[in-house]
Amino acid sequence: MGSGTAMVLTASSQLWGNTGSTLADTLDAFDKNVGTDEAFWETIQSQFRFADGLAYFNNGSLGACPAPIREATNAFRDILDDFPSKYMWGGWDDEKEKVRTKVATLFSVSPDEIALIHNTTEGMNLIARSMDLNEGDEVLLADHEHTSAVAPWTVWQASKGIQLVRPTLPILPKSVEEIVDVYRKAITPKTKVLSICHLVNTNGMLLPIKEISKMAHEKGILVAVDGAQGAGMIHTDLHDINCDFYTVSAHKWLFSPKGVGIFYAKKTAQHHLQPLIVARGYDDPSIRRLENYNTRNLPEVLALGAALEYRETIGAQKIHDRTFALKHYFRSKVASNSILVLKTPGLDALSAGIQVVEVIGKEVGDVKNRLFEEYGIDCRPMTKFGLNAVRLSFAIFITKKQIDFLVDALETIANT
Ligand SMILES: Cc1ncc(COP(=O)(O)O)c(C=O)c1O
């Protein structure tokens, strides 16, 4: 074993030797005894060390690293700074490949379909910059798509005279078919790419990407998914969804260090792609050609591997189930209150860990400010699409006690 590997293992055992193994033991004990008990999730919450008094319902904007991931990141940074040239230029190649394999396992795909990038914005740029489109070709992006998906098509392809087709999504659809229908009607013989969010950042609506991919592929259209708000929040098997591209910000729902992203490209779609940045390795025929930045943030990339280990320790299914449990708990608490109106569809096929709620009669900016100033609750105000609602994110560090606190705060604000 080379000394580089030994040092990384030291970093890993530092990771699991301190808070990590305590976490693993605690989780094990809870699993054996009270696996679904709220105490289990309070243990998880204690691993996230938020500022005193902060109730963080804003994971949709940016996630947080739990303590073991913070420690792993710092350990990897130390190793790099102990011998920079060695680790930046090859010393960590094997470790990087292990991260790629872990990511591939998470999404049930092959490591040869995964590039380790910086964020969703980069992934969407990579797709829009690469595509060989012609004048008159159409790219379909619904009105709720994020600027990080829309701007790349506008900037990289506008000069070629392509058209962006922007259909309107319903805010509160009653069925999956209602959304599929919007896309079906917007597709024309000129549609070449359909770019779609897994979960929209506006009102938390989950889009039926599997059904839409199937429909698009029947017409020979490529499907690019902005997975910023889906990956990590809900279990995602990318081969089953069968999109062509899927791009992720690991710093949101995967709790990695900031500036770490994942890019999936189906093998059969990779020939469409060209690196955004060309450097040594640009001619690598594998997907690795898309991540040749030369000097880069390797400690953070390796700490994504630690974040995925952390996730595996908790259990992917458990995280998925918890997300929906928190959603239902929150929705049931506000359901009977006529002043608090949900602006996110209720069906599990149509929403998950992000919910938006309007406090009737109050301006959302004021609600957001009061939540923070009076209760330490951070959330995102949403005003687009006629929404006057706060966006609340239910990540795994949120407990039911905090939801009780949040709903009490919303009710007080509504009444005063
Ligand atoms: C749906 C969606 N897409 C893309 C992004 C951009 O993410 P990043 O800044 O990590 O690239 C966000 C960020 O909030 C988002 O919600």
Structural summary, described in words:
This protein has 2 domains: 216 residues, Aspartate Aminotransferase, domain 2; 99 residues, Aspartate Aminotransferase, domain 1 (Alpha-Beta Complex). By secondary structure, it is α/β, with parallel strands linked by helices. A 7-stranded mixed sheet has the order 2-8-7-6-5-3-4, with helices on both faces. It starts with a helix and ends with a helix. The protein has 14 helices and 13 strands. Bound molecules: pyridoxal-5'-phosphate. Pyridoxal-5'-phosphate binds next to helix 6.
Order of helices and strands: HHEHHHEHEHEHEHEHEEHHEEHEEEH
Name the CATH superfamily classification of the largest domain.
Type I PLP-dependent aspartate aminotransferase-like (Major domain)
> Poorly predicted ranges (pLDDT <50, ≥5 residues)?
1-20
Number of domains: 2
The total of helices stands at: 14
* General shape: globular
Strand order of the largest sheet: 2-8-7-6-5-3-4
For the record, what CATH class of the largest domain applies?
Answer: Alpha Beta
Please indicate the percent range of residues in DSSP E strands (runs of 2 or more): 5-15%
The portion of residues assigned to helices is 40-55%
Straight-line distance between termini: 66 Å
Instruction: Indicate the CATH topology of the largest domain.
Output: Aspartate Aminotransferase, domain 2
Radius of gyration: 22 Å
Biggest sheet, in brief? 7 strands, mixed
What binds here, in terms of ligands, is: pyridoxal-5'-phosphate
* The CATH architecture of the largest domain: 3-Layer(aba) Sandwich
Q: What is the arithmetic mean of pLDDT?
A: 93
Structural class by sheet pairing and helices = alpha/beta
